[in-house]
């Protein structure tokens, strides 16, 4: 199995408890700058050269870009996933010694990008079932300095424990979720005082992690710098393929297509879903 190394002090017991309690946590300096510098030019290249699983989320080309599975077409993303501590962060928050990649998701908002990311919960976007699908962790790694003004992520603390499944929300005028007979996310923005909303200013290399049931979103980018976030989803436990209506088409394509060829009800596995074991190493001297 592939090995992911992580310095002993990157993820503390306090981080794990905050993640379990709030469904979201910020881990400062989780990803060393050498990895951020490696992936930044690759992120720009991917945005300018969209692949089969990428989309312009905003109407204006390139303003709000969403690229999935970059690692399947770009070596720098692959090296990032196989050598950075990102997967180990996810594993440690789950108190697990192993972790499996689900997919990488690049989300960039250019200065002036006028699309907020609507409040949503990730669970029902994914064509997955099983106990692992119910506790899937998502990293959101800052490639730039990020503030709320530039479109920093926000999370409703504790919403992963509401025991409610919400319909996916479109990130733009796409109406493919309109026919789903599933409750919608409540109006968070209209009632912000009723919730404990978590957000953090980030430096490059800081990492946010949220639980698959946590309600989250982000505002427009009103700042004069780009906001590049590298979101990576990981799995632990039993995860089966469940191609329900409303799930992300690109994910269905990768799971069911070659070389993975996973059939409904079977474990999500194959070359595009590599597994890793975590090795804790001494924290380097500052
Ligand atoms: O980057 C964003 O604005 C949205 C990210 C997100 O929703 C996620 O990572 O689940």
What do these coordinates show?
It is a single chain. This protein is an alpha+beta fold. It has one domain: Sandwich (Jelly Rolls), CATH 2.60.120. 18% of the residues lie in helices and 26% in strands. The strands form 3 sheets. Strands 1, 2, 3, 4, 5, 8, 11, 13 and 15 form a 9-stranded mixed sheet that branches. Strands 6-12-9-10 form a 4-stranded antiparallel sheet, with no helix packed on it. Strand 3 and strand 4 form a beta hairpin. 2-oxoglutaric acid (AKG) binds next to strand 8, strand 12 and strand 13. The site of 2-oxoglutaric acid has 9 residues, from strand 8, strand 12 and strand 13.
SSE topology:
Blueprint: E1 2-7, H1 13-22, E2 24-27, H2 33-48, E3 54-56, E4 64-68, H3 75-83, H4 86-93, E5 98-109, E6 117-120, E7 128-129, E8 137-142, E9 154-156, E10 197-198, E11 207-211, E12 216-218, E13 227-235, E14 240-241, H5 249-256, E15 275-281
């Amino acid at each position: 199995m592939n090995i992911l190394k992580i310095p002993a002090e990157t993820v503390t017991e306090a981080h794990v408890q905050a993640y379990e309690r709030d469904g979201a946590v910020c881990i400062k300096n989780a990803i060393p700058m050498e990895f951020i510098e490696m992936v930044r030019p690759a992120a720009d290249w991917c945005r300018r050269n969209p692949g089969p699983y990428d989309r312009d989320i905003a109407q204006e080309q390139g303003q709000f870009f969403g690229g999935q599975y970059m690692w399947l077409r770009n070596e720098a993303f692959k090296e990032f996933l196989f050598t950075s501590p990102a997967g180990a962060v996810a594993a440690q928050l789950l108190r697990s010694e192993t972790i499996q990649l689900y997919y990488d998701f690049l989300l960039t908002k250019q200065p002036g990008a006028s699309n907020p990311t609507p409040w949503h919960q990730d669970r029902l976007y994914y064509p997955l079932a099983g106990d692992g699908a119910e506790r899937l962790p998502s990293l959101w790694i800052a490639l730039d300095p990020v503030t709320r003004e530039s479109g920093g992520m926000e999370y409703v603390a504790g919403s992963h424990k509401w025991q409610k499944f919400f319909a996916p929300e479109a990130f733009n005028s796409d109406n493919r979720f309109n026919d789903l007979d599933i409750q919608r996310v409540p109006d968070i923005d209209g009632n912000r005082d009723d919730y404990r909303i978590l957000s953090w200013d980030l430096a490059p290399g800081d990492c946010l992690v949220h639980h698959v049931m946590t309600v989250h979103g982000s505002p427009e980018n009103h700042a004069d710098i780009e906001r590049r976030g590298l979101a990576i989803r990981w799995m632990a436990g039993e995860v089966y393929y469940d191609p329900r209506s409303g799930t992300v088409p690109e994910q269905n394509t990768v799971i069911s297509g070659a070389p993975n060829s996973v059939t409904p009800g079977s474990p999500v596995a194959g070359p595009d879903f590599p597994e890793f074991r975590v090795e804790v190493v001494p924290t380097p001297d500052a």
